[in-house]
Amino acid sequence: MRKRDLVKYERALLAEKQRVLKQGNFTSEVMEASGPDATGDLSSHRTHVADQGTEHYQSELASRLKGMEAKTLREIESALRRIEDGTYGKCERCGNDVPPERLELVPHARLCVKCLKADKDRR
């Protein structure tokens, strides 16, 4: 891969990293705003089942979002390391080039489309 292309992908990865970090801050703010303190209720015990259900749903959603954000950040960091060690843009499974169109959409892609499909078919 050409140096110019690597610089372009590195910039895209760094921009994506900033976006995910910003989104993570937003998720944390939403989690804090949905807690019992946000409603002015001083007790941590909700008496209405609907309130408990809503809080549980919001907590689960925020937890899943945090998990997805953490996974994406790990993938981005891994892609940045691959740029440094010269393996970026190569499929980790078959060793073929990952098409530029795929890297444009998912700059932290580890697999080519063929291997990705095979991986999903196995699940």
What integer is the average pLDDT?
Answer: 85
Strand % is: under 5%
Number of domains: 2
SS elements, strand count: 0
Morphology: elongated
**Poorly predicted regions:** none
Overview of this structure, please?
The chain has 123 residues and is mainly alpha-helical. It folds into two domains: 3-88; 90-123, no CATH class. Helix content is 72%, strand content 0%. The chain contains five helices and no strands. The protein has helices spanning 3-33, 36-39, 49-85, 100-105, 113-122. Helix 1 packs antiparallel against helix 3. The longest helix is centred in the middle third of the chain and has 37 residues, at 49-85. The chain is elongated, with a radius of gyration of 20 Å. The two termini are 32 Å apart.
Quick overview of this protein structure:
With 123 residues, the protein is mostly helical.
Topology diagram in text:
Elements: H1 3-33, H2 36-39, H3 49-85, H4 100-105, H5 113-122
Helix pairs in contact: 1-3
Features:
2 domains; 5 helices; mainly alpha; 123 residues
